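Working notes for the structural subgroup meeting. M.R. asked for a predicted model of this chain before we commit to crystallization trials. I am recording the input and output together here so anyone reviewing the notebook later can reproduce the run.

Input as submitted:
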Amino acid sequence: MMGGRPSTAQLAVPRSDPYVWRNVRIGGGGFVTGIVCNPSRPNLIYARTDIGGMYRWEESTQSWIPLLDWVGWDNWGYQGVASVATDPIDPDRVYAAVGMYTNDWDPNNGAILRSVDRGDTWEISPLPFKLGANMPGRGMGERLAIDPNHNAILYLGAPNGNGLWRSTDSGASWARVAGFPGSGDYAPDPSDPERYLSQRIGVVWVAFDASTGGEGHATQGIYVGVADPANPVYHSTDGGVTWSAIPGAPAEYLPHKGIVDSVNRVLYIATSDTAGPYDGAKGDVWRYDIATTAWTRISPIPSSSPDCYFGYSGLTLDRQNPETIMVTTQVSWWPDAIFFRSTDGGASWTGIWEWATYSERTVRYTMDISSIPWLTFGEESDPPATSPKLGWMTAALEIDPFNPNRMMYGTGATIYGTNNLTDWDSGGTVIITPMVNGLEQTAVIDLISPPSGPPLISALGDVGGFRHDDLERVPSTIFTGPVFTTTRSLDYAESNPGVIVRAGDFTDRPSDCHIAFSTDGGATWFQHTEPRGISLGGSVAVSADGRRFVWAPGDPGQPVVFSAGFGMPWAQSTGVPPNAVVRSDRVNPHTFYAFKDGTFFVSANGGATFQATAATGLPAEGSVYFKAVPGHEGDIWLAGGSPVGAYGMWRSTDSGASFTRLSNVERADNVGFGKAPPARTYPAVYAVAQIGGVRGFFRSDDGGAGWARINDDQHQYGNACCAITGDPRIYGRVYVTGNGRGIVYGDRSLSPWGT
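Returned structure, recorded in C-alpha cell form:
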C-alpha cells in the first residue's frame, strides 16, 4: 500500500536541533587540482578540488579551512571548483569558478563565487554555460585571473567553445570577449557516448605581464592558453582589445600551464599531449622572451628524447628569485612522479630523482608520512618504485611567493609540501611531508557504525576505505587483504558485529579480488572464492548472526549469489534480479531483503530463494536506499526515488509485504538509525530529506512521527545522500557523507560531545 503524496503546504516546518559538525579525519584522499598563493599577503593560500570544494590555509594551525560547506542540494555542483583567483591588490577578495560537470550529470550552469572576506561569505554570479571541475583537463589552469594592476577586471577561460570571458565590475557581471579567436576544441574522445571524454577542453589559463600596466590602469600584455595544439597561445598587447595567436608558438601539444615572470618579461608554458589528469606520454617546457619574441624549448627531458614518456603539467616560479622555476611530469606513473628544478631560467635542470642504474635511483628527497600513514596504500616498496610515492596527477605546484623554502603540490590523494626547498640547490635533501590537515576530500559511498568495536567503518572511492577507532585520528592504513580501488558496500552482523563484509571494484586485478571478510571488526581481512567475471562490487549483506552472506555484484547481468560460510562456496540465488540492492534483517538470521526497479523481494532461507512481495507504489526510478531496523524484526525503512515519479520515505513492519508512506516527509534520499533517545527503545531515525519545504539532515526520536532538522544552511555539504547512519552507542551522533567532502559527523550542541 502507498500513502498519497504530501503537499508542501500540509507539512509543518520541522523544529531545529542545533548540532556541532566535525570531520572524521582521513587526511585528504582525493585530487587537489590547484593551489593558489596570494602575491601580496603572506600565508594566504587557497586549494581547489575537483569534487570536494575549496579551502584556505590557516598558518597558525598549519591546516586548511573549508569554504564551501554551505553549498546545498540544489547547487551541489558548486563543490566542484574549476579555478581560483586571489586578488593581488585587495587580498581579502577571492573568486572561484565553480561547476562540476559540463554534461547533464550536473543540472546547473557554472557560476563565479565572489568574496570580500577571504571566502568566509560569498555572492554568486551565475554563468550562461557549464564548468567542469571534475571533467578531463581539470588540472590545467588557472582559467580565472585578476588583472594585477586593475583588480576590477577579471578574465575567465571557458570550455566547450564558449571562449574567453571578461568582467569589469569585480566579477559581478560577465561578457564574452568578442574579438578573442581561440576556442580550444580539443576533446579526449569526441565520440564518447557518455559525453564525458567528448568535452572540448576550451580556454585553460590566463596570465598577465604586470609590467605593462600601472596602478588603476589595465595591464596591456595578456597571455591566454587554449586546448588547441595548432595554436596553443594567444596574446593581446592592448589590454584585451585585440587578440592574435603568438607567432612561432610551439604547435604540437596542449598548454597545461602558463606563468609570466614580469621582472624578466618571460612567459613559461608546460605542455602535454593530452589534457590529463590520468594520462600524458609526451610534452615540452617552453620559454618565450616577450621583448625579443623568441621561443626556446627548455624541457628537462625533451619530447624528442626516448627517455620522455610523460608530458609536463605542474609549473611554478620562485617570485623571490624569478630565474628559479619548477615543473612536474604529467604523468609518470612508474616508478614515480618527477619534479625538475632550474635556477637559471630553464637553461639547466636537476631532477628530484635520477637513474643511477636501471633498478636504482639517486634521490634528493626523503618523505615523512607519519601524520598520514595510509599513504603507502598498503603497498611495500618494490624498487625502483617506492612506497609512498611522490605522487601522481601532480598538476598543482606552487612555491610560496614570500618563502622560497616552502613548496606545496597536489596529488590524486593529498597535498604534499616541504619547508626546506632551497636545500635542493646546495646538494641537500628536501624533506617532503603531507600538508593536508583539515582538507578532507573523498567520495564516500557507504558507512556502518557497529554496536561494538570501531565506531565507524567507511567505504570510499579511489582509496578503498577505513576502519576508524578514533574519529579524531587519521587511520594507519586503508583496507588491505585485499585492497580495492573503490569499496561499494559494507555490512556487519547485528548480533555478532565483529563479522564484517565488504565488496568493491578492482578492474585491473584478477576476478577474485572483489569481496572480503573480517571476524575482528575490520582490523584484518581475508578472502576465499568468488564467482568468475566480476569487476564491480555492487551490494552485499551479512545475516544477523554472521553465518550467511548475500552478494549482488555490480556487473550488468551478474546474478545474485549467497554463501553459507565466507564464500565457501557461492551459489546462485533464485527469484531476484541481477544488480538488486540487498540487505539483511537485523534480528532474524534467515531473512534477507532485496529491491530493484520498484519491486521488493524477501528471502526466508538465507538468500537461497527470494520472492517478490505484493508491496506497490515504491520508487521505480532514481536512487533508492533501504535498511532494516536493529532489534526489530521485519521493520524496514526505504528512502529515495525521483521527482518524475514516487519520491519519499516508506516504512514496512511486516518484512516488506506492505509499505506505508510517511505523510510528513515530502522527499527523502537516505535513512539510517542510531541509539534510541533516553527512556525510549526505538532507535533514533536519521534522514537526508526534504520536510516542510526544507532540505537538510533530520532526526526523529519517535519513529518518524516528528522530525528535527539537525544541520543548518552553513553545513549542507552539497548532494550529501550516499550514506547516513547514526551511532548505536551515542544518542544524537550521526555520520554523513559529504558529496566529495569526506565524512562529517554531528553531535547535538547541548550534548556532552558538543561545544
